[in-house]
């Protein structure tokens, strides 16, 4: 193989050091101190592999290898570098490291592309800090308003815009971060599968055809606090009791919808969270995904109906849509190239549907996109136990490298 497995290993292991929870997984929230350490490292590595480095108005990091014709649109390779709390070292970084390794190979082989090559490391794909997934890519795609960056806040009440300003970025300059099909020829992302299919089948890479549609709702149930011992049961406005009645009915909605529909309540916060205080506010999320957009919309409406009908008198419910993405078909032409290059390298591949959302689905709204999966050990992700063998990452990078060489040399 042309790529350097030791260099890939070093990149990934170095990035894993920038965590707020050493010893218990990767916790690297957007615009945090760990984010700053990681971005300093990434910018330095981009420079070392011969790239011109810049950060856009919202903090996405770019490294550019100029093409023979600088006026042509760029081929972009990369992923995100934020994490979930106590996550793994591969989700996101494997795709960023793919970009670094591809750039290193261009440098070592003294390749000057016709079309410019750009490497990107994006912020806030997970939505772990501000509750809105794919935010870095959605901001560069023009799907986010400056006003929403003021209203969107983390658990401490810090807005996205405030967090940006602290690092020298500015949400009011969103238009300056915008990318379109006029300046982006293609986007290629490598990602760990986050499931067991490739490992169980003994296959090397998955070439994604479709990414499921999804929506994320934030639900706020508001009641009235009171003393746990002195407030009679029939006089209570218990927000948690009301929320539990709603939550009990939600999983069955996805089961009945079929079409690979899934529903997850992954975050629940109770206020004031005192053992002897009746809860007055409960906030929870509802994540709905399906390869059928009709199913996503139907389950979304059913969730809203249950919330409306099961919220007792004296208690209110507010529903906010934090994210909505349609199912996305990726580029058939790039899919063919990735598949052909996998075969030429002697790798076992399969076409796949992605049940997880990725920045690739946002890019697909304005350019040609390819997404490559590499196996996840035991199908685990979003946990410290997340693991992909470095050799398997290397195989995926080889496929991306061969495809990027083709994309930077000629029309798709």
What is the radius of gyration computed over CA atoms, rounded to a whole number of angstroms?
22 Å
Q: What characterizes the major β-sheet?
A: 9 strands, mixed
Low-pLDDT sequence parts: none
Distance separating the two termini: 25 Å
Helix-strand topology string: HHEEEHEHHHEHEEEHHEEEEHEEHEHEH
- Please bin the fraction of helical residues: 25-40%
Q: What is the global morphology?
A: globular
Q: Decide which structural class fits the backbone.
A: alpha+beta
Quick structural gist:
The chain contains 13 helices and 16 strands.
Overview of the structural elements:
By secondary structure, this protein is α+β, with helices and mostly antiparallel strands. The chain contains 13 helices and 16 strands. Strands 1, 2, 3, 4, 5, 6, 14, 15 and 16 form a nine-stranded mixed beta sheet that branches. Strand 3, helix 3 and strand 4 form a beta-alpha-beta unit. The longest helix has 18 residues.
Write the layout of secondary structure elements.
Blueprint: H1 5-16, H2 33-48, E1 52-55, E2 61-65, E3 74-80, H3 93-108, E4 117-122, H4 135-140, H5 146-151, H6 160-166, E5 184-192, H7 197-201, E6 205-211, E7 213-222, E8 226-227, H8 239-247, H9 250-257, E9 262-264, E10 268-271, E11 277-278, E12 281-290, H10 293-310, E13 316-325, E14 328-329, H11 332-344, E15 349-354, H12 359-363, E16 368-374, H13 390-407
Parallel strand pairs: 3-4, 3-5, 5-16, 6-15
Antiparallel strand pairs: 1-2, 2-4, 6-14, 6-16, 7-12, 7-13, 8-11, 9-12, 10-12
